[in-house]
């Protein structure tokens, strides 16, 4: 009778798997001892399974993304306060872009994540922020229509100062095939930073600051503009205007956060 080696092989396989698992647990325990994990935002000690944030920061982040908002301008708005697809704050406005999707409000934990990502080279936060943007877009009703994701461009001088375009990083984690990213929208004028300007000054600051490259693919396309923060919507409006002049059929906006909720 031939002796089968399969049971012996199986025993050795199980033994090896057990040794690997035990070694991994020991190394993970040693890593936690030498380099204890802490919250990405406030440095509070956390468990490794907490996914980078302490319970307080998770709660703040959840509150930031839980509010209802207007799908035309992005401001906080109750569904019962929407008339003709507009909230009270944008009834007298006519945004050039066709709709907006946001993750949440530019406050507390979400604000801290964006600031760290944008100004402190914490590009490892891009997958988390981009993933939240992708989830918000999936619930929008127009996600399947998007053919091109267009990051709001930086002027080359600002790009050198910062080292990267945060909107492009977000677009890379937001875009899903068959749609793709296009960078043929460009900023041709170096502008002041928007946050210290009035709404009228913001519109003037970005006027004629953008154009499209020759041979662009925007004609007849449905586009998602991607940016980290919008306040007055001036930058998104100017970009959408340029894209529609270039022949885009529809232009939507996808942002991480909307700021200045109390602004008129």
Global shape: globular
Structural class: alpha/beta
Order of helices and strands: HHEHHEHHEEHEEHE
How do the strands line up in the largest sheet? 1-7-6-2-3
Please indicate the count of domains. Answer: 2
CATH class of the largest domain: Alpha Beta
Contiguous helical run count? 8
Kindly describe this structure:
With 264 residues, this protein is α/β, with parallel strands linked by helices. It has two domains: 36-66, no CATH class; 71-258, 3-Layer(aba) Sandwich (Rossmann fold). It is 38% helix and 14% strand. It is built from eight helices and seven strands; from the N terminus they run ααβααβααββαββαβ. It has helices spanning 6-34, 55-64, 108-119, 126-138, 156-162, 166-174, 199-206, 234-245, and strands at residues 100-105, 148-151, 180-181, 185-187, 210-212, 222-230, 250-258. The strands form two sheets. The chain has a five-stranded parallel sheet with strand order 1-7-6-2-3, sandwiched between helices. Strands 4-5 form a two-stranded antiparallel sheet. β6 (222-230), α8 (234-245) and β7 form a beta-alpha-beta unit. The protein is globular and about 70 Å long. The model has no long low-confidence stretch (mean pLDDT 85).
Sequence-ordered SSE layout with sheet pairings:
Elements: H1 6-34, H2 55-64, E1 100-105, H3 108-119, H4 126-138, E2 148-151, H5 156-162, H6 166-174, E3 180-181, E4 185-187, H7 199-206, E5 210-212, E6 222-230, H8 234-245, E7 250-258
Parallel strand pairs: 1-7, 2-3, 2-6, 6-7
Antiparallel strand pairs: 4-5
